[in-house]
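Retro notes, item 3 of 5
We never archived the inputs for the LJ3UWUTL complex last cycle. Fixing that now. Sequence and ligand:
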Amino acid sequence: MAQLSYVSGSVGLITLQNPPVNVLSAATRQGIMESMKKALNDPKVKSVVICGQNGVFCAGADIKEFGPNISGPSIVPLIYDIEVANKPVVAAIEGSALGGGLELALTCHYRIAHSKTRLGLPEVTLGLLPGAGGTQLLPRLIGIPASLELITTGRHITAAEALQLGLVDHVTQSDTVDSAVKFALSVEGEPLDSRRISKRPCPHLPDLDAVFEAVMQKVRQKFYGAIAPIACVQAVRAAATLPFSEGMKREQQLMSTLFTSGQARALQYSFFAQRAVGRWSMPSGASWNTSKARPVHRAAVLGLGTMGRGITVALAQAGVSVVAVEIQEKQLNEAREHVYATLERGAQQSGVSPSCANITYSHDIQAVADVDLVIEAVLEDLSLKEKVFQQLSAICKPGTLLCSNTSSLDLNCLASQTKNPELVVGMHFFAPAHVMKLLEVVYGSKSSPEAVATAMQLGKKMGKISVAVGNCRGFVGNRMLKPYIEQSYFLLEEGATPELVDKALEEFGFPMGVFRMSDLSGLDVGWRVRKEDGLAEPVGTSGQITRLRGGRRYSPLGDILCEHGRFGQKTGLGWYQYGRPGGRVAKSDPWVFNLLEEYRARLGLTARPIDQQEVLERCLYSLINEGLCILEEGFASSPEDIDVIYVFGYGWPKHRGGPMFYASMVGLATVLERLDHYYRSNPDVPSLKPCKLLRQLVASGSPPVHKWKEITKKIQNRL
Ligand SMILES: CCCCCCCCCCCCCC(=O)CC(=O)SCCNC(=O)CCNC(=O)[C@H](O)C(C)(C)COP(=O)(O)OP(=O)(O)OC[C@H]1O[C@@H](n2cnc3c(N)ncnc32)[C@H](O)[C@@H]1OP(=O)(O)O
Ligand SMILES: NC(=O)C1=CN([C@@H]2O[C@H](COP(=O)(O)OP(=O)(O)OC[C@H]3O[C@@H](n4cnc5c(N)ncnc54)[C@H](O)[C@@H]3O)[C@@H](O)[C@H]2O)C=CC1
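Structure as it came back at the time:
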């Protein structure tokens, strides 16, 4: 796991050997410790270089080992041993130096990095802090403000930025190990005291209290409810105010609290879930093992409204050449300007030149004839989309993949309009499409595994976290949103206000409660769908209100708002008031309170006190129940798929893992008991009826999320 070899006569070269990314597993830590001891005791060795095999230095601790029974040599004494060494130790950094990997490099006396290396302390994203001395060493090396920024965000930086910050001593474009060995030879025998970071004082900061207060405030606001960023600030403060050994004790104290926290478990679960969704599978068993993605060099985007523009930007940024088609001249011109400005802004932020040269614009659908893949993003209208798919099927060269960005229409209907339904898949992006990380790749009943593989691969190239899902109404994310929104309306009928419901959800950790979110996305969107489904009927001022439609409880409150022209932020009025159309600051609206009072009076409903717990239970448990139904029906292949969709597409707080993980933390038996309770008092609300899978999981002793597959498979096989 770590090997000592001898090079250039006097250099001991320690190579970390733990593929794929040389994590510091127990065996690797043991290997480093033994190799270091051997090198330091060998009189022939005058200097040491530490590197990682296969072009990766080290991705830090092995997250899989985290838990109450962590074994092997501790990482902290190991790093002390390196720093006190009486021979120069040089880190040869390439690929990644992250977390414990960067801490290992910080204990070396010199750091040489390849220009393509990424460095960082991402522990905060795992619910931890850099607990192998990182919070004490980094501020001593690069100062407090820069350390606070890196440690509280977990941001990865380039070698160039690391050099600028003083984090590395030298950046090379050539062979890193060769450069480090040459460097080691050049410093053999030189005094080392000034190179030991722990011996340095932390750079003085005159307004220390004010700096820490401001950062703490920012962190509390930005990472609402998360405990790790706060502990990170506290640990860096220890570096600024305490001697090194005392600071290390404080770091360990804070780390041990985080290490066993539910938030750390959730975030570490999420780390692996993000990677697991990439290993997609379809109910037929198709996966990467059986299907190969086709290369996509040239893609078309059809419809340059809100979504088409974002998709064009994301494709161009991924280096794909784009044909962008829009029928309306005005929209086309606006889109061209918008895409250009967004790419320019992105280029300025990333320092990479913009990719505008890759895009051609047209108002003629014939322009898509020679592309490898089309993403359709025209209006959400089935007959329009059907016509577009007929045209695409006739125009495109054989083998072109036809993708739809529809958020709710049946993919099979679109596929049936084409000559090759196996080439049709959904690519459901989220707004704004060039920013949001999530992509649902939707397979219809005839989609070929190759088509799914190609969409998944393209999503990855575009920097998305792609999740393959089945073709049910609303797919996974929007389908689960339906009972969540429905419950929020029922709560209003029973006595809650939009403010009360939103406060409960925002304190849970959502960036926006359900009503503020609905105002932002536009209330008319759901209204249109409800009208198409025959649910929304005009109420008028004297009309009868029926709260039972199709045998189910129904709340027309959302429809009533729309009948008054209140579509949310875009009209300046929705569940809140915004001052003007397009306004962003939500203020309570007495009109809404009056409406609710009149509505309840008209229907003979008595408002009762509703607490935050009930809001959370009814909104979240009904959403969780729907997620479990989706799993039961096989439209998602694992709970990880659902959790990743909610964290990256719907603002589910990261430190709560996702709805499925959260349900397992709360206790599946508790979720079942509460759903049973609410369903008993609302037998006309089917989404509160606990699904079969939930009952089965509880009956099987509520296994952890990673074991659910054993039970879902059995249920799915029986379907
Ligand atoms: C009981 C009470 C005790 C209380 C006291 C406790 C004290 C404990 C002290 C411990 C102090 C330890 C401090 C420390 O060192 C903390 C850390 O280092 S935490 C880890 C920080 N590192 C990271 O977050 C890096 C994570 N990795 C990445 O960002 C990417 O993998 C990377 C950029 C390196 C490479 O990306 P890419 O090429 O895209 O590959 P993948 O992401 O697909 O990864 C490939 C493969 O490797 C797995 N993997 C990656 N990193 C890790 C890791 N750190 N641990 C385990 N496994 C890792 C990844 O899952 C992939 O495998 P799959 O099988 O495909 O999933
Ligand atoms: N807006 C959102 O937040 C999201 C929307 N979606 C889906 O994306 C699709 C597009 O939605 P938006 O961008 O919001 O709509 P939009 O109304 O902003 O844009 C649609 C564009 O398509 C153009 N168009 C219509 N027919 C066309 C044709 N035959 N050829 C070329 N262009 C044509 C229109 O002129 C318009 O510019 C819909 O299916 C929607 O459900 C999916 C995820 C999120």
